[in-house]
Hints:
Layout: E1 2-7, E2 13-19, E3 22-28, H1 38-48, E4 55-59, H2 65-82, E5 86-89, H3 91-96, E6 104-112, E7 115-122, E8 125-126, E9 131-134, E10 142-146, E11 157-158, H4 163-172, H5 174-181
Parallel strand pairs: 1-4, 4-5, 6-10, 10-11
Antiparallel strand pairs: 1-2, 2-3, 6-7, 7-8, 7-9
Amino acid sequence: MNFLSINTCSNICSIALFEDRKISLKEKENIKDHSEYIAIYAEELIEKCTEKIEFIAIAIGPGSYTGLKVGLSFAKGLSLALSIPLFPVETFLAMNEKINFKGNYYIALFSHRDYLYVQEYNNKIPIKKSKCMKYNELSEYKIFGYGLECIENLSFVVVKPSSLDIGEFTIKNYDKIKKDSSKEFSPIYLSV
């Protein structure tokens, strides 16, 4: 299986090339404009590829509106240019693969001011839809996430969103994602 994986849901621009069992990663944190890096990283990875790229796995959110828009626009253009399909992957489902926790917990990404994109899970299963809400409205569950250090007195375990997560989730759930990729999909843009 040879494919590109892209995740631009946060201030991390992350693109990975999965070529059989070999993985190449281009990633930069704390960026303000994904469009500065995404095409350069993709070109560098595509040049390394010795086999035909079969598809692009893309994070569809939730996350940064601008980051998702840049990532999806780029992925759609590249998929058309290469005549390959896009495989949509929800950001939190991919991040959840890294978490081994029993009971209720949240996966969260910083949104703005005191708002977070969150989804509640129980024993690795999502139990509510993702939403954008104030951090002080959360229950007393453990929080796993990224970009949350700017909120005072919020206790959380860092789980960074990455194209590696998107790619590994795609491999694990390939048949279902391939089937779903034939349907129209929309990014998950959340607002207050």
